Amino acid sequence: MVKLGNDWDELLAEEFGKEYYLELREFLKSEYSSRRIYPPMNDIYNALRYTSFADTRVVILGQDPYHGVGQAHGLCFSVKEGVVPPPSLKNIFKELKAEIGMAEPPTGELTGWARQGVLLLNTTLTVREGAPQSHKGRGWEILTDKIISLLNEKSDGVVFMLWGGNARAKKALLTNRNHLVLECAHPSPLSAYNGFFGCGHFVKANEFLASRGLSVIDWSKTK
Fold it and tell me: Do 157 and 208 touch, CB atoms closer than 8 A?
């Protein structure tokens, strides 16, 4: 059984008993026993463990985990301390410097954001080494769509940052007018200059939260 240690346990209990999830679980057992899969099994649900439903104020949607050695640890775009930030994360830090003058932090670990209420959620939570999107279509999307739909029901305003096509496809789930939905290109080097740079999302998020009387995010506190 998955144990998250916060309100997600009750909210997702029914999902973890559904047929699609049980099939996904059997698939993952086979994958982890026969291939190199990321993140490590105990890190799969870190996004939900670090950021409870009640505490979630900002959602950043990623695609699937980093597929290189030692990178993924269950938070989208984040890498553990001591791991060189991948290009997409470096571009996120470049945008933060442009928006708020933030210097690139000494680590690419974003647990500090997660603890402040930024849910760093990939739409697919596992991946084979060196094979992006290799676990796409196996059931993860059903679970993460449920998570997004639950957050859509929150009465407090939540900021959803949808970067790139995979994330923007989730906009249809966001029907609650209490929320702020921000869209732009993915921070990947392939697309960052097509609208990610200059998007202003980090400033816009805090302006929205402040307007609702909610605590803003200290983006410089990454760890």
Answer: yes
Other C-beta atoms closer than 10 Å to the C-beta of 215 total 11
* Spatial CA neighbour of 5 closest among 63, 45, 62, 44: 45
pLDDT at 78: 98
Q: What is the pLDDT of residues 117-145, one digit of tens each?
A: 999 999 999 999 999 999 999 999 999 99
Residue 64 annotated as catalytic: yes
**170: its two tokens:** 């989730």
∠ Cα 208 210 214 (to 5°): 105
Where does residue 103 rank: exposed (0-12), middle (13-18), buried (19+ CB within 10 A)?
exposed
- 174 token code pair: 């966001």
Given 7, 43, 55, 64, the catalytic residue: 64
Tokens of 64: 């699937």
Alpha carbons 190 and 88: distance in angstroms, whole number: 9
DSSP 55: T
Reported as a single tens digit per residue, the pLDDT across 24-81 is 999 999 999 999 999 999 999 999 999 999 999 999 999 999 999 999 999 999 999 9
**Crossing angle of helices 140-152/19-34, nearest 10°?**
130
Q: Quote the pLDDT of residue 141.
A: 96
